[in-house]
Amino acid sequence: MASKRTVLIVDDDAELREALVEQLALHDEFDTVTAENGTKGVQTAKGDQVDLVLMDVGLPDIDGREAVRILRKGGFKSPIIMLTGHDTDSDTILGLESGANDYVVKPFRFAVLLARIRVHLANARAAQSARMALDTAGRYLLAADRSGAILWWKGILTGGALVMAVPLACAFLSRFVWPPGTDATSGFSQGDRARHRPQPCAGEVY
């Protein structure tokens, strides 16, 4: 039997928290923990093994979107689904830009929420499996934003040539990882080298 996935429910509405706990308890794949405000929710997510967070936007102490920002800034990577009573494009955009993976408007059908929970957990599990597979193979793994800036990387240099598709990745590795005396940007023109000088990684390093 597969291990259960822990869902953290952060909402100041006690009835909704209880209803979600009861509904999720009907499915053997879930365990639940709850928090009635953002501060406790952030502490719980950081301290416990949480696989997914249901985060209300209108919390009594801090805005739910700010709680999401705090979690993401602290390195929390599990999926986060925002729950809100506001159904405007701007609210959705703000929620997603804060670092949430999804945005569900109240009132909602539990069956729809359950489907979203399962999809996000499956995606997170697949991503983790891909990382583990690449790590086992001894290869580099990195993520970059649309501008080419590296968000995070993972891997151990085992020797030999490494050809990176993103110039900024080469610049980053040449400064922080590449063996002394090796120029990771040697394949680029002088102009490219000037544009892609090594810069510190702004994201997380594992």
Q: Could you walk me through the main structural features you see in this protein, from its secondary elements to its overall organization?
A:
The chain has 206 residues and is α/β, with parallel strands linked by helices. 41% of the residues lie in helices and 18% in strands. The chain has helices at residues 14-25, 38-47, 64-73, 89-97, 110-136, 167-176, 190-195; strands at 5-10, 30-35, 52-56, 80-84, 102-105, 141-144, 150-154, 204-205. The strands form two sheets. Strands 2-1-3-4-5 form a five-stranded parallel β-sheet, sandwiched between helices. Strands 6-7-8 form a three-stranded mixed β-sheet. Strand 3 (52-56), helix 3 (64-73) and strand 4 (80-84) form a beta-alpha-beta unit. Helix 2 (38-47) packs parallel to helix 3 (64-73). It starts with a strand and ends with a strand. Residues 155-167 and 177-206 have low confidence and may be disordered.
